[in-house]
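go over my protein:
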Amino acid sequence: MASSPSKPELNEFRAEASAWFSENIPLQPDFMMPLTFMEVGTDEQFEFLVDWQRKVYEAGYLGAAWPEEYGGRGLHQAFQDVATDVMRRQSSPIMLNTIGLNWAGPLILDMGSEEERRRYIPGILSAEDIWCQGFSEPENGSDLGNAQTKAVREGDEWVINGTKTWTTHGSYAKYMILLARSIPDTARKYAGLSFFLAPMRIPGVETQPIQKLTGEYGFTETYFTDARIPADSLMGEEGQGWAVAMRTLEYERSARGGQAGGLSIVAPDHGEVVELARRAQRGGRAAIEDPILRDKLVEFMIEAQGIALTNRRASIGPLVQDRPMSIPLSGKLMATEFTRRINEFAITLLGQAGAYAVGEPEAVDGGISQRAYLNAFSATIGGGTSQIQANIVAEHVLGLPKH
């Protein structure tokens, strides 16, 4: 592991990164850009973001802390944290290959074989290989342990049959992290699951785009019909898929570090919400003059700053010594619910105009607040709903009983 950098080294790196992003962040294209990696639904968006990820990677600001032998720079994680912070501050476009960069990639580096690391990691970083996730199923909702997609071993192949849903990038992905049932009729449903690094561009795999309330796409339903994948697509041992899936969710929920960096979502800008409150009218006056709304704005600003400082707070021992896992296990819940609530608040500032959506001439600022609010729900569901996250905090942080 690389040695901890000094403050002057990090400051120099920040200055270099800031200069590079200032010069290279692309202008807003003439088509609507996705707010999160889950809204990439057109070829224009996809190609634009593939080019952007490749450019950032080649400049050295993505995967900086991943080992050099697999395509990273071998630097200390602090350098990547600085680069990601610069991207956030300069409103950089999102990173398309979030599932690869932040879930599959760290998992492969952590639990994968040497051959798997050399095969998959370089393509994840360069965006040559886009990854998707095959966990959720139409009939099982959040009951991941009840997955019914089947994997049957036949010689040097696994034959996959079943359906996965809410597959982000399903129509673009080259690989899927797939949870399937390879051992039927076990006494414990978790014991029959296996985890695969499955190719997508093979016979027997079909995807159907899912249109959302916003009119956008980004998710697909994925159908496996006698799809044959190589035997070495199995990650770990047969029947140990549940443990691998749980480790994957730790990365997805940011409860475990090691991600490649970059932005997966356009974070809400509370400064823009303040400006909206100055323009919006309440009883003939600017909404910001209403003391109740002003207090609410201040609360959002304090909360936004707290979330921005989350990682730094987690590293300060006295702040977390009583409950050391409180910040890692609550981060996903806090951030996604904050995004949903602040966008909802922005809509309330608009009054009746809040009913107009993207594409309608009366929509304020092109309907960005309405679009952001509706899209925010996907993040409160993916990786475990907010209710599941609250249970995790209750049980594993507060020590409350399951029943």
